[in-house]
C-alpha cells in the first residue's frame, strides 16, 4: 500500500473540517470564517462561501446531495444548497462544535458547548436539548435511528431521534481523556475477528467462505505454478462473532486510545494504544479501513479492527480532519497550517499460486486461500499487515512486518483446505520476492537469493550477476526442490535448494519478465521485456519459435506441446508448430492445466474453461490422429469428439476412432468398428471395402458404391441403394441374368412406395412382383373396393389365402355382395353362412341352412339371440328350439326376468316367468332326464308369474298418485298376495306395500279385524319414511273400529258352501274342505268353479269325449246354458231364463267329503259322471305332455267365465272382453286376439 499525492492547496487559516459531496465531485473545506469549495478532480477552487462572522469549526453534507450545513464560533448554523446558496440560518447560545446529517431522514444535528439541536426541513423550529458538558463530536447510525455524542468529559452519549438518551458510555480516563472524534462504521455487515491477548496464540485460522469484495490494484511480482483440488473449510477462531447486522462505533480520545463499541454500549475487544492525540477518525465508504489523524502530523491507515497498516503522508502540523472520498480510495487531509492535501491510496496485489490453490491478501491483514476448481475459500485472520505470500504444495508462507508464518495442511490429502501454523520465523526481512518450499524459505533481495530453514537459519545464498526478475519453484524432492530464475540481463538459471552452484540454462539478449518449463522439462518458454514469447529447446539451446504481444506464459501440465500466453487483451493458445489460436481475454495467464486456464485480472483470479478445438483440428489437418486424441482429452465439445472420430475412421485409424466414438456414446459406429476388426481377424484386408462401409455409414453413398464396385462387390452396392430406396441408382448395379434380383428390386420399390404414402403405385408394383397379399392389404386398408374385386376376379380359385383376404376386406368395407361372390368362387359355404349371419341377412342364411342342415346351429343360434335382443322372444324361443338350444333360451329369459324385477317392471316379470314356465315344460317334454327338475321349475315359475302379475297392481297403487282399480279389487289382490307369500317373499316384492294396501282397503271396506292384523304385522317391518305418517295415523284410527270383519267380504267355498275368514292360515284354500280357490286373473274374486279329477284309466281325450257325448238333463223349460267357443276364449253363458238343475246331479254327490279331516280330498269322477256333465258347464286346461289336463265345473248359473286358451287363466267374461279391447291381447300371457290357438 502506498499513497500518491494528487493535488495540494494552502489556505491562510487552520482547516478544522472537510466534507465531500455524496457524488464525490466537490470538497467543502472549513477554512477560517469561510467555506472553500474545491473540484476534487484537479483541486481547482470553485467558489469561496461567506456567511459566518467567526471561525467555521464544522461542515457536513446531506446524504441526498441537496444541501450541506456549516457551524461556526459565531454560534450560528447555515444551511446551504448544492448550488452553493445559503437558504437558512439558526443559532445556539454557544459556538457550534460539530454537526451531522441523518443519513435517511436528513435531520441535522448541531452541537454546541452546552446543548445540541435537531432540525429538519419539515420543521419551522429547532428542538434543543441541554447537556452537562461540551460536545466535541457527533455521528448518526446507518439507519438514522440513533445519534452518538462525544463529550469533553470522556463520556459518549447515545440518543434517539427525539434527543432522549438511551445509552451512556463512560471512558476510563474520564475528563482527562476528552472524546475528540467518533464515527459509526458505514458497513451494514460486520465480521469481527478479535484475537486473544494470549501471546501463545498469536494467529488464528478460520474457514470463512464468502465472496470477498476487492479493490482496484495493479498486478505486481508474483510466484506461480498450476492446479490441484478440494473443498474443505478451516477451523474457526473461538473469537469469531456471528455474521450479523451491527452498528459499530469507533471512539478516539485524547487518552491516546482507539476503542470500538456496540450500539448497546458494550465494548468490542480492548482499547488500542495510540502514540498521539487523535483529532479525527473516518471510515472508508464500505467500512473496511479506518483513517486517524492528529498530533503526530500524519494520517494513519487502520483496519476496521484497529490494526495499524501504514501512513498516508506526513504533514508539517497537526492534522485536524481527514475524510475519504465516497466510493473511492482518495483521501482529503486538512491541517493546522491551512494545508489541504488530496491523496490516492494504491493497494498492491499480494498473492501466490500453486496449481489449483491461489492465496491472496484481503483487508491488508487477512489471507484467503481459494480452490480454483471448486471455488471454495478459506480465510486466515491476522493482526498485522501482510507483506508477502508464497504457496507450494501443502505449505503456505505469510510475511508480516516483524515475522514470517509458515502454515501447513492438516492432512496429506491434496484436496484438504484446513491449515495450521507449522513454524514462525520471528525476524524482520526485507525482500522483493518470497518463495516457499517443503522445508525452506527463499528470499529475493535484488541480486541476492537467500535460503532459510523454517527455524530462520540461513543455509545457503546465491549472488546473481543482475537483478532477479522472476522466480518459480519447478518441483523436486522435499529439501531438494529446483528453482527457475530469470534475470534482467536475460540469463535463465536453474537452482537446486541443496546445491550452492546455479546452473545456467541459457542466456538471451533481452530481460526476462516471465518463465515456465514444460511438463517433461524439455522446453522453456520465456516472455522478455519486449513482450515477445520465446520458446527454447533446453538441451540444444535452440530457439524453436517466438510469438509477439505476450506478457505472461504457461505450459499445459498435461500436454507437452501446448502452451498459452496472454497479451494485448487476447489469450493465445499454441500447439506444436501450428499457428496460434486467439480469443479475447483480459488479464495475465498464470497457469494452464488440461482445458482450464488460470487468469489473474486486476485482483481476481479465475479459472477459464477453454475448449481445445482449434489445436485438435490443426492436428487433424495433418492426419495426426493420436496427437489430436491427446488434445481432445484435455477438453473439447461433443461435436469436436465426433469430428475426430469421423476423421480417424476415414483414415482407417480404428483404435483412435473407437476411443472417440466411446466418448460420444455412438453405439452404431462402435458396432461398425467392431465388425471391421472382427473381419480383419479372419484375414480380410481389403481397405477399399472397409472404407466403403465407413462411407455408407456416413451417408456418402455414391463414394461407397464406387468403392464397392472397385472391390468387386457390386451386390453390396445394389443392396445399399435398395435399402435406401434409391432404385434408379440400384438399377445400375442390377444383373440382367438374374430375374430374382429384378423381382426383389420391384418388391423393395413397392415397400418404399407404401412407406412414403404412395399406395396406388405400391399396389401396382406388388401385383407386378406377384405379391398379391400385400397388394390386397394396401387396397383394403385404403378402402379401394373396385381394386379388390378386380384382384379377386383375376385370381384363380385355388389362390385361397388371397381370396379369403379379399372377402375379409369386403366384409370390413360393408360390401357383403362382393364378399358372398368371393366365398362362392372359393366354395366356402361355411364362411358364406357366417357372412349372412354377421350382416343379419337372415332370409339368405335360413335358406342356406334349409339346403345344408349341417349349418343349422350356425344360423339359428345367432338368429335366436338377435331376436331376443330385439324383444321378439317368442320367435327367439322357436329359433332356439330349432337349434336345439333350450338351455340358452332359458338363460336369456331368466336374465330378462331378473332385469324386469330389479327395474320394478313387475308386469313384464310376470310375463317372462310365464314364458320361462312354458320353456321348462317344453324341455321336460323333450328331455326325459330333466323332466322332474323342469316340472318343478314349471310350477315354480307359474306361481311366480301369478304373484308378480298380482303385485303389479299393488306396486302401481302405492307408487302412482291415482289408482285404476276399485277398492274391492285391491282388497282381493292384497289378500291373494298375503296368502301366496306364506313361505318366502320373491325378489322385488314388498310386504310393506302389500300390507299397507291391505290395511287401507280393509279399513275402507269394513274388514276392521283384518286391517288391525295388517297394521300389527307392519309394526314388525321397516316402514319407509314416506309411508310412516300414513301408517301411524292408520294404526291409531283402526283402534276406534270394532274388532270384526264385514260378513259380505267373507269368501265362499263353492264346494262345501263354507264362509272362509279373510285371514286364512292355510292360504288360498278352504279351511273346511281344503279345496283350492280359483281366482279371476283380473279382479281376483273367487270364481264359482270346482276343480275335479278323472279316475285312473281314463285318458284326457276320453274324458272330453264323454263330456261332449250327451247333453245333461235340464229342467222342463227350454231355456238353458249356452257354450261359446272362439280362438281367444272359452266361455259359459246363461240364456234369458235360469236353468233349474235337478237335484239328482251325479257331480253334486261327488262334492261331499268326510267332515273333520285335515287332508284335502279331491273331487274324482268316473265315466258315468262325465257323461252326465254338459260341455257348457266344464272348462278344461289342456296342458301339453307330460302334464295332465285340468277340469273345472261351474256351479253357479248366474255368471259367465272365460279362460285364456294360451295361459289358461280364468276371468269374468265381461272383464276379459274389456281387457281384450283395451290391450288387444291377454293381460297375462299377452296372446293377441288375432292369433290362432296353437
TrEMBL record:
Q: Where in the cell is it found?
A: Cytoplasm, Cytoskeleton, Cilium basal body
Q: Under what name is this protein listed? A: Intraflagellar transport protein 122 homolog
Which of UniProt's keywords are assigned here? Cell projection, Cilium, Cilium biogenesis/degradation, Cytoplasm, Cytoskeleton, Developmental protein, Repeat, WD repeat
**CC annotations in GO:** intraciliary transport particle A; non-motile cilium
What domain of life does the native source organism fall in?
A: Eukaryota
Q: Name one GO biological process term.
A: non-motile cilium assembly
Q: Which residues form the signal peptide?
A: none
PANTHER family annotated for this entry? INTRAFLAGELLAR TRANSPORT PROTEIN 122 HOMOLOG (PTHR12764:SF4), WD REPEAT DOMAIN-RELATED (PTHR12764)
What InterPro entries is this protein classified in? Beta-prop_IFT122_1st, Beta-prop_IFT122_2nd, Ift122/121, TPR_IFT122, WD40/YVTN_repeat-like_dom_sf, WD40_repeat_dom_sf, WD40_rpt, Zn_ribbon_IFT122
Instruction: Answer yes or no on keyword RNA-binding.
Output: no
- Identify the stretch(es) annotated as Disordered: 217-238
Question: In which ranges do the WD repeats occur?
Answer: 49-80
- Residues forming the Intraflagellar transport protein 122 homolog TPR domain are 612-992
- Domain (IFT122 second beta-propeller): give its ranges: 351-605
Amino acid at each position: 500500500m502506498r499513497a500518491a499525492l494528487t493535488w495540494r492547496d494552502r489556505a491562510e487559516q487552520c482547516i478544522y473540517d472537510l466534507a465531500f459531496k455524496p457524488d464525490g465531485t466537490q470538497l467543502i473545506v472549513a477554512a477560517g470564517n469561510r467555506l472553500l469549495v474545491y473540484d476534487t478532480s484537479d483541486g481547482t477552487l470553485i467558489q469561496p462561501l461567506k456567511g459566518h462572522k467567526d471561525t467555521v469549526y464544522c461542515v457536513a453534507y446531506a446524504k441526498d446531495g441537496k444541501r450541506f450545513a456549516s457551524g461556526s464560533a459565531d454560534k450560528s448554523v447555515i444551511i446551504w444548497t448544492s448550488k452553493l446558496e445559503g437558504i437558512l440560518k439558526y443559532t445556539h447560545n454557544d459556538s457550534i462544535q460539530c454537526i451531522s446529517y441523518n443519513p435517511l431522514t436528513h435531520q441535522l444535528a448541531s452541537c454546541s458547548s452546552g446543548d445540541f439541536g435537531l432540525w429538519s426541513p419539515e420543521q419551522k423550529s429547532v428542538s434543543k436539548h441541554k447537556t452537562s458538558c461540551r460536545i466535541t463530536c457527533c455521528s448518526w447510525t446507518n439507519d438514522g435511528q440513533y445519534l452518538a455524542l462525544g463529550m469533553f468529559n470522556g463520556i459518549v452519549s447515545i440518543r434517539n431521534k427525539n434527543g432522549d438518551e438511551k445509552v451512556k458510555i463512560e471512558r476510563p480516563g474520564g475528563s482527562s481523556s476528552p472524546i475528540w472524534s467518533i464515527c459509526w462504521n458505514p458497513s451494514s455487515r460486520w465480521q469481527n475477528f478479535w484475537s486473544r491477548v494470549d501471546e501463545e496464540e498469536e494467529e488464528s485460522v478460520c474457514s470463512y467462505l464468502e465472496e470477498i469484495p476487492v479493490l482496484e490494484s495493479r498486478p505486481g511480482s508474483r510466484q506461480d505454478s498450476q492446479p490441484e483440488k478440494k473443498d474443505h473449510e478451516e477451523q474457526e477462531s473461538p473469537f469469531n462473532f456471528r455474521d450479523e447486522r451491527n452498528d459499530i462505533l469507533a471512539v478516539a480520545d485524547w487518552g491516546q486510545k482507539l476503542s470500538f463499541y456496540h450500539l448497546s454500549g458494550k465494548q468490542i475487544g480492548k482499547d488500542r494504544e495510540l502514540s498521539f492525540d487523535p483529532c479525527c477518525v473516518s471510515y472508508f465508504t464500505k467500512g473496511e479501513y479506518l483513517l486517524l489523524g492528529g498530533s503526530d502530523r500524519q494520517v494513519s491507515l487502520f483496519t476496521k479492527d484497529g490494526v495499524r497498516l501504514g501512513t498516508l503522508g506526513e504533514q508539517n502540523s497537526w492534522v485536524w480532519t481527514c475524510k475519504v472520498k465516497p466510493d473511492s480510495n482518495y483521501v482529503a487531509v486538512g491541517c493546522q497550517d491551512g494545508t489541504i492535501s488530496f491523496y490516492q491510496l494504491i493497494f498492491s496485489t499480494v498473492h501466490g499460486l500453486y496449481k489449483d490453490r491461489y492465496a491472496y491478501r484481503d483487508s491488508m491483514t487477512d489471507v484467503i486461500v481459494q480452490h480454483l476448481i471448486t471455488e471454495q475459500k478459506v480465510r486466515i485472520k491476522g493482526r498485522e499487515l501482510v507483506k508477502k505470500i508464497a504457496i507450494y504444495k501443502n505449505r503456505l508462507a505469510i510475511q508480516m512486518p516483524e515475522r514470517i508464518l509458515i502454515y501447513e495442511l492438516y492432512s496429506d490429502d491434496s484436496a484438504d483446505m484446513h491449515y495450521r501454523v507449522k513454524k514462525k520465523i520471528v525476524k524482520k526481512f526485507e525482500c522483493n520476492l518470497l518463495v516457499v518450499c517443503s522445508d525452506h524459505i527463499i528470499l529475493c533481495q535484488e541480486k541476492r537469493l537467500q535460503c532459510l530453514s523454517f527455524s530462520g537459519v540461513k543455509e545457503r545464498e546465491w549472488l546473481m550477476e543482475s537483478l532477479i526478475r522472476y522466480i518459480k519453484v519447478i518441483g523436486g524432492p522435499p529439501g531438494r526442490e529446483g528453482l527457475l530464475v530469470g534475470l534482467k540481463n536475460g540469463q535463465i538459471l536453474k537452482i537446486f535448494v541443496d546445491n550452492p552452484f546455479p546452473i545456467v540454462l541459457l542466456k538471451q539478449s533481452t530481460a526476462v519478465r516471465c518463465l515456465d518449463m514444460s511438463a517433461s522439462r524439455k522446453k522453456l518458454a520465456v516472455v522478455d521485456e519486449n513482450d515477445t514469447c520465446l520458446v527454447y529447446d533446453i538441451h540444444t539451446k535452440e530457439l524453436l519459435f517466438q510469438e509477439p504481444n505476450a506478457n505472461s506464459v504457461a505450459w499445459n501440465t498435461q500436454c507437452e506441446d501446448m502452451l498459452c500466453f496472454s497479451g494485448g487483451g487476447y489469450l493465445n493458445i499454441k500447439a506444436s508448430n501450428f499457428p496460434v489460436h486467439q480469443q479475447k481475454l483480459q488479464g495475465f495467464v498464470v497457469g494452464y492445466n488440461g482445458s482450464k486456464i488460470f487468469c489473474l485480472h486486476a485482483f481476481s483470479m479465475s479459472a477459464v474453461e477453454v475448449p481445445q478445438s482449434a489445436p485438435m483440428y490443426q492436428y487433424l489437418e495433418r492426419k495426426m490422429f493420436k496427437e489430436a486424441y491427446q488434445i481432445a482429452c484435455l477438453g473439447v465439445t461433443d461435436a469436436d469428439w465426433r469430428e475426430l472420430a469421423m476423421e480417424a475412421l476415414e483414415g482407417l485409424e480404428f483404435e483412435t476412432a473407437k476411443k472417440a466414438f466411446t466418448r460420444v456414446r455412438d453405439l452404431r459406429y462402435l458396432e461398425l468398428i467392431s465388425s471391421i476388426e472382427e473381419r480383419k481377424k479372419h484375414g480380410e484386408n481389403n481397405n477399399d471395402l472397409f472404407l466403403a462401409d465407413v462411407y455408407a455409414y456416413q451417408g456418402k453413398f455414391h463414394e461407397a458404391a464406387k468403392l464397392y464396385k472397385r472391390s468387386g462387390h457390386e451386390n453390396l452396392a445394389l443392396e445399399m441403394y435398395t435399402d435406401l430406396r434409391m432404385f434408379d441408382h440400384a438399377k445400375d448395379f442390377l444383373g440382367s441374368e438374374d430375374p430374382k434380383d429384378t423381382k426383389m428390386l420391384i418388391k423393395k420399390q413397392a415397400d418404399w412406395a407404401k412407406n412414403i404414402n404412395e399406395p396406388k403405385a405400391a399396389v401396382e408394383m406388388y401385383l407386378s412382383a406377384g405379391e398379391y397379399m400385400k397388394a390386397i392389404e394396401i387396397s383394403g386398408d385404403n378402402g379401394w373396393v373396385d381394386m379388390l374385386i378386380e384382384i379377386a376376379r383375376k385370381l384363380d380359385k385355388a389362390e385361397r389365402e388371397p381370396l379369403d383376404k379379399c372377402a375379409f376386406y369386403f366384409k370390413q368395407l360393408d360390401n357383403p355382395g362382393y364378399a358372398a361372390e368371393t366365398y362362392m368362387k372359393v366354395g366356402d359355404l361355411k364362411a358364406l353362412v357366417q357372412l349372412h349371419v354377421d350382416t343379419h341377412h337372415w332370409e339368405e342364411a335360413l335358406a342356406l341352412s334349409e339346403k345344408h342342415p349341417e349349418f343349422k346351429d350356425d344360423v339359428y343360434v345367432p338368429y335366436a339371440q338377435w331376436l331376443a335382443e330385439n324383444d321378439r322372444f317368442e320367435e327367439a324361443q322357436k329359433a332356439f328350439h330349432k337349434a336345439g338350444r333350450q338351455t340358452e333360451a332359458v338363460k336369456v329369459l331368466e336374465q330378462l326376468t331378473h332385469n324386469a324385477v330389479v327395474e320394478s317392471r313387475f308386469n313384464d316379470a310376470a310375463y317372462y316367468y310365464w314364458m320361462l314356465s312354458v320353456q321348462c315344460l317344453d324341455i321336460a317334454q323333450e328331455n326325459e332326464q330333466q323332466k322332474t327338475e323342469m316340472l318343478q321349475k314349471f310350477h315354480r315359475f307359474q306361481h311366480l308369474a301369478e304373484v308378480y302379475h298380482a303385485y303389479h297392481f299393488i306396486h302401481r297403487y302405492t307408487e302412482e298418485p291415482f289408482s285404476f282399480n276399485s277398492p274391492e279389487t285391491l282388497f282381493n289382490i292384497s289378500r291373494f298376495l298375503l296368502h301366496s307369500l306364506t313361505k318366502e317373499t320373491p325378489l322385488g316384492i314388498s310386504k310393506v306395500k302389500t300390507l299397507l294396501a291391505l290395511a287401507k282397503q280393509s279399513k275402507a271396506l269394513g274388514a276392521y279385524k283384518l286391517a288391525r292384523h295388517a297394521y300389527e304385522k307392519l309394526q314388525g317391518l321397516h316402514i319407509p319414511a314416506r309411508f310412516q305418517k300414513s301408517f301411524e295415523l292408520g294404526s291409531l284410527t283402526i283402534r276406534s273400529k270394532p274388532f270384526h270383519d264385514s260378513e259380505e267380504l267373507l269368501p265362499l267355498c263353492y264346494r262345501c258352501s263354507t264362509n272362509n275368514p279373510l285371514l286364512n292360515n292355510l292360504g288360498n284354500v278352504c279351511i273346511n274342505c281344503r279345496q283350492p280357490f280359483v281366482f279371476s286373473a283380473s279382479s281376483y274374486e273367487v270364481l264359482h268353479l270346482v276343480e275335479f279329477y278323472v279316475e285312473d284309466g281314463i285318458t284326457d281325450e276320453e274324458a272330453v269325449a264323454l263330456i261332449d257325448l250327451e247333453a245333461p238333463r235340464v229342467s222342463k223349460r227350454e231355456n238353458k246354458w249356452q257354450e261359446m267357443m272362439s280362438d281367444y276364449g272359452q266361455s259359459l253363458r246363461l240364456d234369458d231364463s235360469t236353468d233349474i238343475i235337478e237335484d239328482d246331479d251325479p257331480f253334486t254327490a261327488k262334492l261331499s267329503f268326510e267332515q273333520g279331516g285335515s287332508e284335502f280330498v279331491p273331487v274324482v269322477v268316473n265315466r258315468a259322471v262325465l257323461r252326465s256333465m254338459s260341455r257348457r258347464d266344464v272348462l278344461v286346461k289342456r296342458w301339453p305332455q307330460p302334464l295332465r289336463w285340468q277340469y273345472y265345473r261351474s256351479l253357479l248359473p248366474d255368471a259367465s267365465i272365460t279362460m285364456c286358451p294360451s295361459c289358461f287363466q280364468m276371468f269374468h267374461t265381461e272383464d276379459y272382453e274389456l281387457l281384450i279391447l283395451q290391450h288387444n291381447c291377454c293381460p297375462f300371457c299377452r296372446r293377441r286376439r288375432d292369433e290362432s290357438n296353437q
